[in-house]
Amino acid sequence: MWANDELDTFLEGVTRDTAVPCVNSLFLYTATRTPDAALRMLHGLEEEKRILVPLWIRSHWLLAAVNRPQKTIDFMDSEVGIVPIFELKEIDGFISTGLGLKEPLAPRIMRSLLQDLHSTDCGLFTALNSVLWTRGMLPQRKQYHKNRRITTGNLLPLAEMYARKTLTIEQLLARFLAHIAAIQAPLLLPEDALSIMGTLAATDIHHIRVGWIGFKSDTPTLVEWTGVMIKRCTKT
């Protein structure tokens, strides 16, 4: 399990590379003890359009993300059932108050991948979800899927390399998506994947494979992208 300082180091990199500010990971821990001190952590962020807020609840990490243009606060949790919706709404109200909003933001549960049962990878998933969310790659969850749990494989060393600045955010994203494709995890729908290709085309990444299992069909589909052309094929 990642400690708060390790997660903060990773999220500082995300802020550096995406210009999306991040609140200190001790925010919620502080809020349960000295609420005024936690509210002060939000000072200076009132005009920010997007904000990342890592949350530590009952020895579990998850991510909240403020989206001011859409008037929402998005929650990404790699485990189901630990934090009930009424508690997320309370957190929403507290953050909204700290940002000086007259009404709470609308809470949304996003389609995060799930960690393996009984694993302690919640910190890693929180870190990776921050990259996906800032790139617009986590749509709102509308239904569950039986194959959403994934093993981390080589994702932990990749995240550590990014935190040490030996891997760019584009390289991390590309390898993460390749891992998702390899295990056929249903994170992205076709339109979600295609919408991000243009931004990756401007980087030095020349080849990437992005996979998903569609929600309208049981047929796995794979997109293969070379930076120039996209071709689709149906896997058998």
Précis, in short:
This protein has eight helices and nine strands. It is 37% helix and 19% strand.
Describe it for me?
With 236 residues, the chain is of the alpha/beta class. Helix content is 37%, strand content 19%. The termini are far apart.
Largest sheet: 4 strands, mixed
Mean pLDDT: 78
Give me the Rg, rounded: 18 Å
Percent range for β-strand residues: 15-25%
Described by the principal axes of the CA atoms, the overall outline is globular
Helix content: 25-40%
Note the gap between the termini.
37 Å
Q: Note the total helix count.
A: 8
User: Which sequence of SSEs, written as H and E, runs from N to C?
Assistant: HHHEEEHEEHEHHHEEE
Largest beta sheet: strand ordering: 1-2-3-4
Give me the secondary-structure category. alpha/beta
Per-chain topology:
Elements: H1 4-18, H2 27-31, H3 35-40, E1 50-56, E2 61-67, E3 72-76, H4 85-98, E4 106-109, E5 114-115, H5 122-134, E6 149-150, H6 155-163, H7 169-182, H8 190-201, E7 208-213, E8 220-225, E9 230-234
Output the keywords.
236 residues, 37% helix, globular, disordered C terminus, 4-stranded mixed beta sheet, alpha/beta
